[in-house]
Sequence to fold (331 residues):
Amino acid sequence: MSADDEMAASSAPLIEHLAELRTRLIYSVSAFLVMMIVCFTFGSALLDFLLSPIEQTMRNLGNPNPVMQYTAPQEYFFTLIRISVVGGLTLAFPVIAYQLWRFVAPGLYRKEKNAFLPFIISSPVLFVLGAAFAHYVVVPLAMRFFLGFADLPSFVAAIMADTVTPPGALLLPGAGEGLALPQTAQEAASNGVSIVFNGKVNETLDITLKMIVAFGLCFQLPVLLTLMGTAGLASSRGLRRVRKFAVVGILVVAALVTPPDVTTQLILFVVVYGLYEISIHLVAAVERNKDKQARKEGVIGEGESLFDELDDDFDEDDVGDVAADDESKPS
Fold:
């Protein structure tokens, strides 16, 4: 066989793989565009759904007719585009994951297919759970914190001006008929400058989408670590060993992806750290399955593990003594 024939034979599989990749990409992009158009068609309803936490918060704070505004002609249109992009990626993810699976599956063994398939199924489920947790729990808390905090200075100013009876003042000795508490703190500070919240659609939606995407991605932690454990890139003992570094990393992530209030940061930290601990147990379960299979094949004996490390049986001094004995032996 000539050199040209060998080159042609070796390039044929590569061309086939590239053609397969092009087909899978076309299907994935088409699914994304279709879902994006669907989301844009119902963009107004999706926007109302995403803004429902701040709407409810404003009603709870005494605003019977919450109003959001946009200040540029193109702002509302591009807001719907952003919602359509995020919604299109979310809805098209099952199709994208299936196309990825069809591209990767032919190169995997049956055991690898059985190990990889559950992660593709669980990943969108966990993302939806994280997004729902952010929308129904975390975003309302963040909105309540910011809007309630905006009303706090006027309440304090009213107390300082003796127009409002401080909390607990009626319980003091000699307290008679005190001043009635106004309906809102802003009424008490009516002599000053009124501070009114005029929310912009894109800025409010930016907080909501960031929280939804952040929690959806953080809920992928068990999938990622378990997949790494299945591939042998992580171990349960290693994850336990770096737990203190993981705590610092989770705190940094919580500070970066959440609004600057302690409540939402603490919630994200508790949730992600809980997922980290769950991931340790999932990786340990994967290791037990590997040990069980290895015992059936006779690779290891009873009571042994493929994941035994040297420091499980020897401390550092023992390792140093063993190394010194090896060096003292005659060659």
Q: What stands out?
A: Residues 6-11, 152-186, 310-331 have pLDDT under 50 and may be disordered. The first helix runs from residue 3 to 41. The radius of gyration is 30 Å. The chain has two domains: 13-107, 121-166+205-304.
